[in-house]
Amino acid sequence: MHIRFQDAGPEPDFDALARFCGAASSPQRLRLLYAIARGVTTVSELAKWVGLTTTAVSAHLGELRSLGLFQSRRIHPHHEWRLALEHPNFQRLQLALPEIFGSLH
Question: Do β-strands 78-83 and 70-75 pair in parallel, antiparallel, or remain unpaired?
Answer without folding.
Answer: antiparallel
